[in-house]
Amino acid sequence: MKKYSYVGISFVILIFGIWAVNELSNRLSGPDFYEGETVPDFSFTNQHGQTITNKDFEGKVYVLEFFFTTCPSICPIMNQNMKKIQDSFYGNPEFGIASITIDPQHDTPEVMKKYAENYGAKHPHWHFLTGDKETIYKLSNEGFKLYTAEEESAPGGFEHSGLFALIDKDGNIRSRYDEFGNPKIYYNGLEDNEIEMLKEDIKKLLK
Q: CB–CB of 158/152 below 8 Å?
């Protein structure tokens, strides 16, 4: 009788141990996160005239946005919030930001450098990227499925999303699930509560 009790207790301890290990793994690796598509290869020029590719972000958790420097509507809010994110992870070599212009004809590296300085972009891995327009639009519309287009009637002459993409160290798009169990996929770069969510999720992916 004692033998069976001992076996039963051992089994319970084993099950509890397996559960505890799995729970710890969940907290550290974030398997409750949605894992989307791998970011397509890209190669652009940053504000310092350097060629930056997706390979430069390998081993880093980074946030990606599409914007343009003369945007009179949502871009200033987006980049004020991106600055807050930068400040939360400033000095962390495993964190980065990719801000890709959708108006490369105007947004040269020189223009982007001044814009970056105006927004206090000091993190060495915050890259303001410009390049071939067709390539940028293909990356946005097809690679990320984030709508981008020229539109004369839109503020500043362009339409684009105010969403931020969160990308893990392996180059995969990640996000948390919403209250209905659906993946958010992207984070609203205009909403304070979404920025706080994004900060929390960056921390989890950095672990």
A: no
For 98-130, write each residue's pLDDT tens digit.
999 999 999 999 999 999 999 999 999 999 999
Report d(CA 143, CA 105) in Å as an integer.
21
Average pLDDT, the chain: 89
Binding positions: 71, 75, 160
Domain count of the fold of the chain: 2
- CA 159, distance to chain mean position in Å, is 20
The binding site for Cu cation consists of 71, 75, 160
pLDDT digits (tens, 9 = 90+) for 158-202: 999 999 999 999 999 999 999 899 999 999 999 999 999 999 999
Return the CATH number at 110: 3.40.30.10
Boundaries of domain holding 86: 34-206
